[in-house]
Amino acid sequence: MKTSVKTLGIIMDGNRRWATARNLPKTDGHKAGLDTVVKTIQWCNEVGIEDVAFYVFSTENWKRTKGEIDALMKLLEYILTDKRGDILTQEVRVRFVGDMSKIPKRLQVLVAEMELETKKHKKTAWVCLSYGGRLEIAEAANEVVGKVTEKKLARELWTADMPDLDLIIRTGGNHRLSNFLLWKASYAELYFTKTPWPAFSKRHLRTALEWYEKNIQVNKGR
Questions:
Q1: Which CATH number does the domain housing residue 78 bear?
Q2: Of 45, 61, 86, 164, which is the active-site residue?
Q3: Quick check: is 13 catalytic?
């Protein structure tokens, strides 16, 4: 199927609960979730989505235990090294947005290399890493000199080049944005599913996109 969704945001919730339900370490849930990210990039490519944004690690996640944070950083390194080839074959531009100064130096290098190696592609996978919507807007405001206008602020956002979101999918059962892309989400349709992110499949994506198509048709008729 093809979709009219051009820009998709995904709040990937439920990794830890998925692992707990299977008596697995929490890190196994995060690893399975990151593997799902790679597969979802391919699925989005197949249906014609041009930009997809993944909420990988929030500014609030820095409050977790040092052990869990260290494990998450190692998993991100795994994605950027062991899964690097799988990502490159998707022929999408990979952009990282967030406060990169907080992540380990080795990851900063891998992030920069991935962005450089994929910059020629037109479709984009946005990785929201060490990201918070309120912090993004605050940092953009700090860059604006003189009178703050919506256009001036928009140009200074970390996500200035990202189109406004058409649809946001949140997995895991919670019904909130959790500080995800607040500026870009202004007019997005919101789709919630109880399915935990590691269990999210191509079928689940198709269901969400079909819901979107029906929903926008209903809204057009009003």
A1: 3.40.1180.10
A2: 61
A3: yes
Supply the angle between the helices 66-81 and 105-118 in degrees, to the nearest 10: 30
Instruction: Compute how many other C-beta atoms are within 10 angstroms of the C-beta atom of residue 19.
Output: 21
Note whether residue 152 is domain-resident.
yes
Domain limits for position 104: 7-220
In a domain, 20, yes or no: yes
Name every residue whose Cβ is closer than 8 Å to that of residue 18 and which is 6 or more positions away in sequence: 29, 32, 33, 196, 197, 198, 199
Domain assignment present for residue 200? The answer is: yes
Total domain count, the chain: 1
Q: What is the pLDDT of residues 143-186, one digit of tens each?
A: 887 778 889 999 999 999 999 999 999 999 999 999 999 999 99
Task: Read off the pLDDT of residues 10-62 as tens digits, 9 standing for 90 and up.
Answer: 999 999 999 999 999 988 999 999 999 999 999 999 999 999 999 999 999 99
Buried b (16+ CB within 10 A) or exposed e, 78-112: ebbeeeeeebeebebbbbbbbbeeebeeebeebbe
**Single-letter amino acid code for the residue at 197:** W
Is residue 12 a contact partner of residue 127, using CB atoms and an 8 Å limit?
Answer: no
Residue 45 falls in the annotated catalytic set: no
Tell me the C-alpha to C-alpha distance, in Å, between residue 93 and each of 52, 63, 113, 211.
Answer: 10, 30, 12, 27
What is the token pair recorded at 92? Answer: 């999408």
The answer to whether position 151 is within a domain reads yes
The one-letter amino acid at 215: N
